[in-house]
Amino acid sequence: MDGLDYVFTDVVKLWQGSSRWYYVSLPVEMSNEVLTLSKYHQVKRRGWGAIKVQAHILGTASKQPLREQVVWQTSIFPAFKNGLYQLFLKADVRKLSGIGVADAVTVQLRLIF
């Protein structure tokens, strides 16, 4: 299997601790499915439960179009106690696409096995 695509929409959130992290969360059912799939494709599993993905910001719920189409490779993590996978948004991704905290974004993820 080369990969599996998922599309979801979530609001960009900010976590602040010793550093600032911008992220979106995969829905519960999607997170559970991704976790199950990752258990059967352990060849490329990474630390902390990370799963390698190709991410693509498809659009926002705002009336303003994306500044630029952004596609990048990264990993998703079950980063918080709720067990949901999180997609962290690097500064260059946010700047290129023109998205920020509280923006509802639609994301396409391709799991890379």
From TrEMBL:
SUPFAM superfamilies: AF2212/PG0164-like. InterPro entries: AF2212/PG0164-like_sf, DUF1905. It comes from the Bacteria. It holds the Pfam family DUF1905. This is DUF1905 domain-containing protein. It comes from Methylophilus aquaticus.
